Every structure is written in structure tokens, then in C-alpha cells.
Amino acid sequence: MRAQIIANKSESDPGLVGEALVERGFSLEIGHRRGLELHDFGPQNADLLVLLGSGWSVYDPEVAEFVNKETAVLRAWLEAQKPVLAICFGAQLAAQALGARVSRAPAPEIGWHEMTSLVPEIGSGPWMQWHYDVFQVPEGAKSLATNPMGPQAFRMDNLLAVQFHPEATESIVSVWSSDEGEDELAAVGLDRATLLERTNREVNRTRVLTKRLVAWHLEGMQGV
Questions:
Q1: Which of helix, strand or coil describes residue 5?
Q2: Please, is 184 exposed, middle or buried when counting C-beta atoms within 10 Å of its C-beta (0-12, 13-18, 19+)?
Q3: Can you give the pTM of this predicted structure?
Q4: Is residue 106 part of a domain?
Q5: Domain holding 37: CATH number?
Q6: Whole domain around residue 34: which residue ranges?
Q7: How far is 74 from 76, CA to CA, in rounded Å?
Q8: Of 25, 44, 15, 34, the residue nearest 128 (C-alpha)
Q9: Segment 198-217, tens digit of pLDDT
Q10: Of 29, 22, 24, 80, nearest to 50 (Cα)?
Q11: Count of structural domains, the chain
Q12: If residue 176 lies in a helix (H) or strand (E), which one and from where to where?
């Protein structure tokens, strides 16, 4: 089995999601958003599409060319009814592609934040967050999780979209919190050492939850 992953070049580590997929027998192919070739990432070429996060905003005209290309890939997968997992920016892109509004959040959501899952297969509790935008749940989609900031997950047919970061590992958070990321942490009252220490404690829990989430999605998300 083959999973195709679309990411920014600097944020292309699939982390715990990749780990869960490899354990299920998937090989992983990563494509970068700025060099995306549509014909290479069509549903005829793989069994699963994963859209990772990004520091971009889907409504930013400066990245419209790349957003439009990725949206075209997503729509082809949705039409083919093959599984798609969209994370953070990927979830926002999916929401926008399905006609829902994506906008600036009232405040950044960075670090480990609580959320409430509406289905047992997505664990409630703290998950890693790092975003400045929020999405609305598209018409016809099923809301799966929420917190005070807004929707945190939805499902529509073969698509599972999550605002939080189930892929986050210690190494991923270390990269995100370096350089400019450390300034972003300071702006919300966090320091890098504290965030990394908490990440080290949380990842053992989220590793189990991420495996469950991936398995549920790939097995048809039955029971929703």
C-alpha cells in the first residue's frame, strides 16, 4: 500500500501519523507544495492522501497558485472516494474546497490545548496545536471534535480533517519551536523548554491515540 503526503518542504515529517501508516504496511511518498505535480499525486497512484500542516493561510493571495494545485489534487481524491487525512492547514484547505469559511482565529492556538471529541475514536484531551486560522464545518459534513477556538475535526465521505496535530513528535515540535517559532511561543506566554518537556510527556499518550485515529479512518470510520 502507498500513502502520498503533501507538505511544505520544511514541515514534511509525518511523525506519528507516518509511524502508524508504516506499521500498517504503507510506503510513504512526500511531495512538496511548491513543486507539486498534479499528475503524480492523483488517486490512481496511491491508496491514501495525507495533507500536512503549513505556516501558510489558505486565503493568502501570495500562495494561491499552490493552494489551487493542492485543492485540485484533493478534489480528485474526493471524487475517487479514496481516503484522505487532512491536518491543520490541510484541514483548512479541505474546508475551503468544500465551500466552508476559513478565517483568522481570534487568537493563536499554540501548544497543548484541550479539545472535546464527539466520537470515541478521536481522543479528547490535550493535543498539539499550532495555528492562526480556523475553519467552519462544511455543509453536509459531520462535526467530530471542538474546543472554544472552534471546530477541531470533521468527516465527509472519505475525508477526515483535523485542526490539531496528531503527527506531532518531540522532534517535530523542536523544529517548530526553533528560531521564529520561539518568538511565536513567547507571544502566547510559552517558553520552548517547557513546551518540549510537556511534549515529551504527552507523546506516549498521543502515539496510541493517533494509531487508533488512523486505523479508524482507514477501516471506514464505522460507527459514525
A1: strand
A2: middle
A3: 0.96
A4: yes
A5: 3.40.50.880
A6: 2-218
A7: 5
A8: 15
A9: 999 999 999 999 999 999 99
A10: 29
A11: 1
A12: helix 170-176
